[in-house]
Amino acid sequence: MGVRLTELASELDRNGWLVSCAGDVEVDDVHLDSRAVTTGSLFCCIEGETHDGHDFADEAVRRGAVALLATRAVDRVSVPVVMVDAAVARRAVAAVAAAVHGHPSREIPVVGITGTNGKTTTAAMLAAICADAGLDPEVFGTLSGARTTAEATELQRAMRRAVDAGRRIIIMEVTSHALALDRVHGISFRAATFTNLGHDHLDFHGSIDAYFEAKAKLFETGVADDSVVNADDEHGRTLIARLVGSGRGDQVHAYGIADALGLVETMSSNVFSWNGLDIVVPIGGHHNVYNALAAATTAVVLGIPGESIARGLANVVRVPGRLERVDVDAPFAVYVDYAHTPDSLRAVLSAARSTLASGARLTVVFGCGGDRDTTKRPLMGSVASELADVVVVTTDNARSEDPAAIANEVAKGAGRPESLRVILDRREAINVAISSARAGDIVVIAGKGHERGQTIGTVTVDFDDMDEARGALLRVMGGAN
User: Fold this and answer.
1) Cα dist. 88→71, 153, 321 in Å?
2) With bands split at pLDDT 50, 70 and 90, how would you rate the model's confidence at 1?
3) Residue 228 · residue 118 · CB < 8 Å
4) pLDDT confidence bin for 420, thresholds 50/70/90
5) Predicted confidence (pLDDT) per residue in 194-234, tens digit
6) pLDDT value at position 481?
7) 57: pLDDT confidence band, cut at 50, 70 and 90?
8) pTM of the full predicted structure?
C-alpha cells in the first residue's frame, strides 16, 4: 500500500509518542520479527521478555528493512529511524501497522470477543450466523494462528488481506494479553462481547482485578461502538455498571440465561426459545447456552435478522476440541474438550454429570500447563474430584517444569484422594481411562482440546487428544469383538 515514514511520524507525534524522526522513505509493511522482514518494511525494535529487537536491527536491514522504529539509538545502521517513547512502544507499533495497511477496521465491521472461557465457540457461532446472513466472515482466534490474538503487525496485515479478499465482517477473539500489550490498539470495533471472567493467567496479570482491567480495555470509550455483556457474570455486571456510569448505557446489550426460555439441555444439543425464535444449537452443555446467547445478542447489534440467527445457530459446525465426541460407536461416550481453567472444567463436567444415568460413572483425564498460572492447579483438582467419579491427573504442556511436581499440585486440591490416579504419560492415561469405562459411562479428556502437540521441556512432539482417544476406543471395541 505504501505510506511515507514522515506521515507515520506525524501520526505518532499527534498522539504525543514521537521522540524524533530522522529521514524519510516509503514503507510497505511493518514487522516485529527480523526473520520475517521483506524489502520495503519498517522493522520495529521492541524489548520483549526474552529478546530485544534493537539487537536484530542490522539483520532486519540486511533483509530489506528501509526504516526502523526504535526506543533508543541503534548503531551500525544507515536507514531512517523513528524514535518513540519506550512506555508506548507497543501502542506505536500498532498505530503504524494500522496506518501502513490502510486502517482495514474502518472498512468493514469488526467484532471483538473477550472473556476467560467461550471465546472460540462464541466466535464460531457468530460466524455461522453471519455466513447465513451473507456477510462472508473472517475469524481470527485460537483455531487460526499460533496466538489467539496475533501481534499488531500480523493482525493488521491479515485484516487487510481479509478486506481485499472480499470479507464483509471480521470476528476476532481478543485475549487479555493482547489488550495489555496493545496488540489491538487502533482497531475500530463495531461491537465488543464479554463472555465471562474466571481464574486464569494470573502468572501474567498478577491478580484477578488486573486481569479484569485488561479485559475491560476492549470496552473503553472510543474502542467499541456497542458492548454485549454477560449479566450473569459477576465481572460482567461490574462492566455494565461502569459503562452505564460513563453515560454509555444505551450502547450496552446485556444477556443472561433467563433469555433462553424453555431450555432443554443435553450433551449434544441445546434447545430453547429466544426473542420469539425457536433456537436449536447442535452443541451441548449449559455453558454453550451462554455462548449461543452471546453470539445471538451480538448478531442483533449488527442488525442481522432473527431468521439468520436461528438458522446460523442450527447449522453451526462442530468446534474442534470443544465438547467434541469421539466418533467411535461404543457403549460409553468419550469427549475431548479444551477446558483448562477451573470454571471451564466445572462447566464441562457439570454438563456430563447432568446426563449420566443412575449407576454410570464420570471419568476425567486432565493436567495443567507448566510455566503458567500455578494458583489454578489445586482449584482444578478440587473441581475434578467434586464432579467426577474417577480422576486421572496427567501431563499437559509441562514446558520447563517437572510434570510430576505439577501433578502433585493438582492432586493437593482433590477432596477425595481415593478417586484420583496420577499417570504422567498422557497416552497411557487416556488408554487407562477408556479401557476402564463401562456401559453408560462418560469419559472427558480435558485441557488440550484442538491442540496437536505436547511440549515437554523445549521439545514439542505430535500429540492429538482426539486421535489418541479414537485409537484407544478402537482398540477397546476391537478387543470386545
Assistant:
1) 9, 15, 37
2) low
3) no
4) very high
5) 999 997 887 878 899 999 999 999 999 999 999 999 999 99
6) 44
7) very high
8) 0.93
Planar angle of CA 240, 243, 249, nearest 5 degrees: 90
Residue 369's pLDDT band (boundaries 50, 70, 90)?
very high
Q: What is the 3-state secondary structure (H, E, C) of the chain?
A: CCEEHHHHHHHHHHCCCEEEEECCCEECEEECCHHHCCCCEEEECCECCCCEHHHHHHHHHHCCCCEEEECCCCCCCCCCEEEECHHHHHHHHHHHHHHHCCCHHHCCCEEEEECCCCHHHHHHHHHHHHHHCCCCEEEECCCCCCCCCCCHHHHHHHHHHHHHCCCCEEEEECCHHHHHCCCCCCCCEEEEEECCCCCCCHHHHCCHHHHHHHHHHHHCCCCEEEEEEECCCHHHHHHHHHHHHCCCHHHEEEECHHHCEEEEECCCCEEEEECCEEEEECCCCHHHHHHHHHHHHHHHHCCCCHHHHHHHHHCCCCCCCCCEECCCCCCCEEEEECCCCHHHHHHHHHHHHHHCCCCCCEEEEECCCCCCCCCCHHHHHHHHHHHCCEEEECCCCCECCCHHHHHHHHHCCCCCHHHEEECCCHHHHHHHHHHCCCCCCEEEEECCCCCCEEEECCEEEECCHHHHHHHHHHHHHHHHC
Set of cell numbers at residue 202: 494470573
Average pLDDT rounded to a whole number, residues 334-359: 95
Q: How confident is the model at residue 2 (pLDDT cuts 50, 70, 90)?
A: confident
Residues 6+ apart with CB under 8 A from 200: 116, 211, 340, 341, 373, 376
Domains of the chain, CATH where assigned:
3-100 (3.40.1390.10), 104-314 (3.40.1190.10), 324-480 (3.90.190.20)
